[in-house]
Write a structure and sequence with these properties.
With 291 residues, the protein is mainly beta. It has three helices and 23 strands. It has one domain.
Length: 291
């Protein structure tokens, strides 16, 4: 029987009395795990290119729909925590390319690990919501980094011009290179104002991303990294309702599957053949035809 997937979530909400600010005690960026006692989630963290939560405690409580109605993102007492680049407006130039933002480590990190040394961690789904505030310039992307028995790894950035609409279910959420001066290429989530370009009545964009197939089977720790770029610290973005699903797989199972995949192949005369052989073969005691 296949192991059931466990759910790991980070809300990234914050309590607020004035609709704009929160406190360290009012910030909820903890990771929670449902269905497992060995899979652990760390609190969301900011890499060096994003302001630490101790240095930035601002909140976006409301958004505006296309009819001009002001609506709460969460409720009367809570809003979305704002992640802010660690760049001083008017002094530091915003990172306007994905490459520069990556080099500047403008990441928000959501980390999960399998603490049972007899098991590995297999990610199944990636979901999160993103919103931009006060500007059309915010861009984001996401990838998985982690550690495995085969070493550390990082996937390519997972949101592209080609797959963006399938990931979001919405048009106008990716800006492509158009030759215009100052164009910031990348994934553009909805703004908090539905009347603005690429925005909607929810005030956010939902991202549902397929987990890359080449993540090592021997992974025991994985981090969803969301990069934020295009702005300095006078603007911000929310990354919230982050959800990963994962399965803990026994090491013996993984090794057995790997061994079966790498098992030698023989022809009907019992001679070992290469993967380029055509005809009837036997592998792992089973006959098949290679064409």
């Amino acid at each position: 029987m296949a192991a059931s997937a466990q759910t790991i979530k980070w809300n990234c909400y914050a309590t607020t009395t004035d609709g704009k600010n929160t406190t360290a005690e009012g910030l909820d960026i903890t990771g929670t795990v449902t269905g497992s006692t060995t899979i652990k989630a760390s609190a969301a963290t900011a890499s060096s290119g994003i302001k630490a939560t101790s240095a930035s405690l601002t909140v976006q409580k409301t958004h505006k729909d296309n009819a001009g109605n002001s609506l709460n993102y969460i409720d009367n007492d809570r809003g979305l925590y704002k992640w802010t680049p660690n760049l001083v407006n008017g002094t530091d130039a915003p990172k306007k390319t994905l490459e520069d933002a990556t080099a500047g480590e403008a990441f928000v990190n959501f980390t999960v690990e399998e603490t049972d040394e007899t098991k590995y961690l297999t990610l199944k789904t990636i979901k999160f919501k993103a919103a931009r505030f006060g500007t059309d310039a915010v861009r984001i992307n996401a990838r998985i980094t982690g550690s495995s028995d085969d070493g550390d790894f990082a996937t390519p950035w997972l949101i592209t011009a080609e797959n963006n609409q399938a990931i979001t279910g919405a048009p106008d959420t990716y800006v492509v290179e158009d030759g215009g001066e100052g164009t910031i290429v990348g994934a553009r989530p909805s703004r908090e104002d539905a009347t603005k370009v690429g925005s909607n009545d929810n005030g956010y964009t939902q991202y549902t991303i397929a987990v890359p197939a080449d993540i090592p089977a021997s992974t025991y720790e994985a981090t969803l990294q969301v990069v934020i770029y295009g702005i300095a610290d006078n603007k911000a973005a929310a990354i919230f309702d982050v959800e990963l699903s994962a399965v803990a797989t026994g090491i013996s199972t993984v090794k057995a599957e790997a061994a079966a995949k790498d098992a030698p192949t023989y022809n009907l005369a019992g001679q070992k053949v290469s993967k380029d052989f055509k005809g009837v073969v036997i592998k792992n005691g089973k006959k098949s035809i290679l064409k």
